[in-house]
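The pair is quoted verbatim as follows:
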Amino acid sequence: MATLIQWYEKGMTYRQYIDQMTVNKEEMLSIYERFQLSPGNVETLKNLKGKNLRVIVITEDWCGDAMLNNPIFMKIAETAGVEVRFLLRDQNLELMDQYLTNGTSRSIPIYIFIDEKGNEYAVWGPRAPEVQEYVEHERAKLPNKEAPEFSEKQKEMYKAMKKHFLEDEQVWKQVATSIIGKIK
């Protein structure tokens, strides 16, 4: 089985990841362009620079959570001086299956922070707690899966969630606070 350092070395840079994206690229970059870390977060992240952390991101471009979280995470990584490599979930199931959500779900993105020796330092993902509550609240409004209108209502829900993720700066702050809280 590959070590975390080997997985990291296999990954793409942020630029390479963006260049291969075919879905949600403009949306993700628009969040990246508009999101700003708070001065307090910037100060906290400066203290991480000496830890020489690296991060493996397990993601896919079609994922709405990745569209929301990855640009915020990249601002955090850049500010903290953290090197990042991206791996596509569906091409790296051996690693993904070591980081299942609730032991069963291949939910993404997952951020695996590793130290200089390649030991796991922290893991974050796929959602900030407040975002998880929002998603669960919205899902609870859906009709039963067997209902004829389920598919249409689910599509409407995903469209509304995407709009919410793209426009609500409070959500961005929740994501940043959650990630930073995990690593500080």
In short: The two ends are 29 Å apart (CA to CA).
